[in-house]
Design a protein that fits this description.
Spore Coat Polysaccharide Biosynthesis Protein SpsA, Chain A, two-stranded antiparallel sheet, 10 strands
């Protein structure tokens, strides 16, 4: 299976995050290495507009067959269009086969998890797969504030859920951005990752860390150092 790693150069939340060193290694290297080591992945392609990111990713084993068009690297660029661009430019049988997307901001997803996701996808004869993690807060607990300052339930869950104990609620899950298996036709013509044959791959919270801000990065550093100490 083809693995696509999207890594643009611009990032307002944390400038330069894709090659920022996390515990002595560029952030993107964690994802590239996991993809390269996964048995179910036979090609790892990074799409980027940034030469430094390209050089770094290539050093750790990824292909960079072309640089991304700047029109697909802005703050308003849509991920769907980036993935379609990669598949279409690679050509061959890429449009007919499912492909995986691995965001470089999720450094703790492992090659084992990548392979398990592929096995889940194939075992359930799915069309797409999205990795998820248990939500920390039940959807029924979410509140909004009206224009006149009144606290109101969002009604995302059952009406009585806000008054129930957390332990009594059915678990909710949120996409964690670590692993997607996508379908070119669904992406191109319906512009979605989801359909009636989308299956989940559930991941623990530490593996689901997604880095967008400096606070996220500092927490990831803490986890990386902790993992390193446990391996000693």
């Amino acid at each position: 299976m083809l693995a696509v790693i999207p890594a643009r150069g611009g990032s307002k939340g944390l400038p330069g995050k894709n090659i920022k060193e996390l515990n002595g290694k560029p952030l993107i290297a964690y994802t590239v290495e996991a993809a390269v080591k996964a048995e179910g992945i036979d090609r790892v392609v990074v799409t980027t507009d940034d030469i430094k990111i390209a050089e770094t990713a290539r050093r750790f084993g990824a292909e960079i067959p072309f640089l991304r068009n700047p029109s697909l690297a802005g703050d308003s660029s849509l991920a769907v269009d980036v993935y379609l661009d990669v598949v279409e430019r690679l050509g061959g049988g890429c449009r007919e086969n499912p492909f995986m997307v691995l965001l470089p901001t999720a450094p703790f997803r492992t090659s084992r998890q990548i392979d398990e996701a592929i096995q889940t996808f194939r075992g359930k004869n799915a069309r797409t797969l999205v990795s998820v993690t248990p939500a920390e807060t039940p959807a029924g607990w979410y509140m909004g504030i009206s224009r006149d300052g009144i606290l109101m339930p969002r009604n995302y869950g059952a009406a009585n859920e806000i008054c129930s104990n957390r332990q009594m609620n059915e678990p909710d899950y949120i996409p964690n951005g670590a692993i997607y298996i996508l379908d070119y036709q669904l992406l191109k013509y319906e512009r979605t990752y989801y359909c009636n044959k989308t299956v989940p791959y559930v991941m623990d919270r530490n593996s689901s860390v997604d880095i967008d801000t400096i606070e996220d990065f500092e927490y990831a550093e803490y986890l990386a150092e902790k993992m390193f100490r446990q391996q000693e």
